[in-house]
Design brief:
With about 100 residues, the chain is mostly helical. It has 5 helices and no strands.
């Protein structure tokens, strides 16, 4: 998969994650800075599990439960997910075909 395709996936995921995080935490979408740690907005372990489960549903594959702590910003988490998707044949075919 090309770097452009991965960047496009990352951008889409970042947008979705910002909107989802804002809704989960009852914050205005515009207040979510992708470079800020999600915990700075009040994301605790209970809400993190909910975000993770819904992200798995959105992405279509299981995500390591530690990922939200290993990639603590929307930006880094979206990059991690985009790279994971790039390694999956079903996404590669959609983006390159």
């Amino acid at each position: 998969m090309s770097a452009t395709a991965v960047a496009r996936i990352q951008s889409e995921l970042q947008e979705w994650l910002c909107r989802h995080l804002a809704a989960q935490l009852r914050l205005p979408y515009e207040s979510i800075d992708p470079a800020e740690r999600m915990s700075a907005y009040g994301l605790d372990s209970v809400r993190a599990v909910a975000v993770l489960v819904e992200t798995e549903e959105y992405a279509g594959f299981p995500i390591d439960p530690e990922a939200l702590w290993d990639y603590p910003t929307v930006e880094t988490f979206a990059r991690f997910l985009a790279e994971q998707m790039a390694d999956r044949p079903e996404y590669s075919e959609k983006l390159n075909g």
